[in-house]
């Protein structure tokens, strides 16, 4: 499975340019670039959701944790303005994450 950013030919694109692509495509974005994207999404009034795979792990572990994030997302009515974080042990948390949280820290 190729990452969507690579599939779209956007590998190496700066974060702020990815934000435009994500918004225009109405994508839920999954990343393990936690610090940059928490800040960027905290500055965003409306988004389709952010999934953060907290640890930097190999591709197999990323896929396992991503599937865990999808399990968490399926429990929700929608992912609009939501942050889902998945940790190495498979625990997942979900919370609101918008410009209202610009000074907040995610619950981890």
Output the keywords.
single chain, 108 residues, four-stranded mixed beta sheet, 4 strands, 16% strand, globular
Question: How is this structure best summarized?
Answer:
By secondary structure, the chain is an alpha/beta fold.
State the order of secondary-structure elements, H for helix, E for strand: HHEHEHEE
How helical, in percent, are the residues?
25-40%
Report mean pLDDT, rounded to a whole number.
84
State the total count of DSSP E strands: 4
Q: What is the radius of gyration computed over CA atoms, rounded to a whole number of angstroms?
A: 13 Å
Biggest sheet, in brief?
Answer: 4 strands, mixed
Strand content: 15-25%
**Spatial arrangement of strands, main beta sheet:** 1-2-3-4
Structure in words:
37% of the residues lie in helices and 16% in strands. The protein is built from four helices and four strands. Strands 1-2-3-4 form a four-stranded mixed sheet, with helices on both faces. Strand 1 (29-31), helix 3 (34-42) and strand 2 (50-53) form a beta-alpha-beta unit. It is globular, with a radius of gyration of 13 Å.
Secondary structure elements and their pairing?
Elements: H1 4-7, H2 15-25, E1 29-31, H3 34-42, E2 50-53, H4 59-74, E3 82-86, E4 92-96
Parallel strand pairs: 1-2, 2-3
Antiparallel strand pairs: 3-4
């Amino acid at each position: 499975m190729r990452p969507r950013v690579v599939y779209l030919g956007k590998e190496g694109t700066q974060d702020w340019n990815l934000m435009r692509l994500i918004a225009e495509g109405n994508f839920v974005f999954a990343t393990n670039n936690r610090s940059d994207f928490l800040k960027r999404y905290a500055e965003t009034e409306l988004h389709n959701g952010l999934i953060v795979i907290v640890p930097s792990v190999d591709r197999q572990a990323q896929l396992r944790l991503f599937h865990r994030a999808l399990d968490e997302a399926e429990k929700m009515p929608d992912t609009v303005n939501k942050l889902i974080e998945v940790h190495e042990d498979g625990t997942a948390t979900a919370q609101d994450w918008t410009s209202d949280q610009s000074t907040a820290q995610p619950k981890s």
